[in-house]
Amino acid sequence: MSKTWFETNFCRYINNETHYDENRKIIKETWYYKSGKIVDSYNYEYDLSGRLKKEISKNDYSEDTKLYFYEGKNKIPRFEKSTYKIKNDPIKFYLRDNKEFDNLSVSKFDSISKTDSIFSITNKYMKNIGERSYTSATDTIYRPRLTKVKIYDDFFRVVKEKIFEPNDYTLNKVFFNNEISYEYDPSGRIIKIARLNDDQYHNFLLKSNGKYDEDIKPGRTASNSTTEYSFNSNGYLHSMTHFYQGKISNQICFEYENNHIKKLFYIDTWGKKDDILKPNIITFKYKFDKYDNWIECIKNVDGKDLYVWKRQIEYYK
Fold first, then answer.
1. For labelling alongside 6, which of 35, 184, 203, 291 has CA 20 to 30 A away?
2. Range 232-317 has CATH code 2.40.50
3. pTM reported for the whole predicted model
4. 195, 261, 202, 206: which is closest to 228 by C-alpha?
5. Is pLDDT of 17 > 50?
């Protein structure tokens, strides 16, 4: 369900009916159009360990049934068996071994510099089959490929990450993609995430001794984006501000009342001039049941009531 378009933040107003078991796991979901017609329905079954074992999704045009099989106490299924039926088409069966898609990785941690280098072990590469034409292929030898470097502070929190990607059609070269840095407040909450790309291309060629030689070339477009977070005295998120190339791209600020969002202010600078920037003001008005769960919420945007959510909640006795 979470992969469907109507589960996005923009489409949450579509009518939804959700059923839970006594362990708060979702066992049934039904999504409706405004007219009341069903968009999609989902049913879930779990094993005694609380792991998803069966999932059925259906609509007027298709039905998909998935069965999940686990090894031992693992929480990630080893096998997935899928039965897929499109209206007026024959049934299709699929069996997936998730282990085939696992990326084996190893890490090398330097305790002095508190640096963790992470390598994926792979035999996959792109094979040349003609002029500027390639296809995915596998080699007979598995080789380590640098994918990420993590740097930790004295509290073993990640303060910097360097991301690497394959940069040629062999297994021997990687490209430095970007650098991500993190800042924390005294409570250990992330208050700043910054992504930085400089104006150079950094390629790393793996040598026979297992080390990388760096090759630097100019011509890359430099960019930086930053997201900053602030929190109120109760620990709730107060604001989230995104900057691109040093300028505000968008910002959202929250006001709370009794642990619920009462009001938020949103600014999006895309395609707008600084002198006409004006935040959208969104106000939420609630009605609660005797258990202090909201049963009605009105979303007011810039002084106009635009959306109404209503919930009918049945409780286990």
1. 291
2. no
3. 0.76
4. 195
5. yes
Is the pLDDT at 9 greater than 70? The verdict is no
Whole-number Cα distances in Å, 315 to 1, 21, 56, 185: 23, 10, 25, 39
Q: What is the pLDDT of residue 79?
A: 94
What secondary structure does DSSP assign to the chain, as a single string?
-TTSGGGSGGGTTSEEEEEE-TTS-EEEEEEE-TTS-EEEEEEEEE-TTS-EEEEEEE-SSEEEEEEEE--TT-SS-SEEEEEEEETTS--EEEEEEGGGG--EEEEEEETTTTEEEEEEEEEEEEEEEETTEEEEEEEEEEEEEEEEEEEE-TT--EEEEEEEEE-SSSSSEEEEEEEEEEEE-TTS-EEEEEEEE-SEEEEEEEPTTS-EEEEEEE-PPPEEEEEEEEE-TTS-EEEEEEEETTEEEEEEEEEEETTEEEEEEEEE-TT--GGG---EEEEEEEEE-TTS-EEEEEEEETTEEEEEEE-------
pLDDT of 104 = 76
Please state the rounded mean pLDDT for residues 181-185.
97
Q: Does the pLDDT value for residue 11 go beyond 70?
A: no
The confidence score (pLDDT) of residue 13 equals 47
> Which whole number is the average pLDDT over 68-91?
93
- Give tens-digit pLDDT for 277-308: 788 999 999 999 999 999 999 999 999 998 88
- Domain spans in the chain, listed from the N-terminal domain onward: 5-100, 103-229, 232-317
Q: CATH number of the domain at 5-100, out of 2.60.40, 4.10.320, 1.20.58, 2.40.128? A: 2.40.128
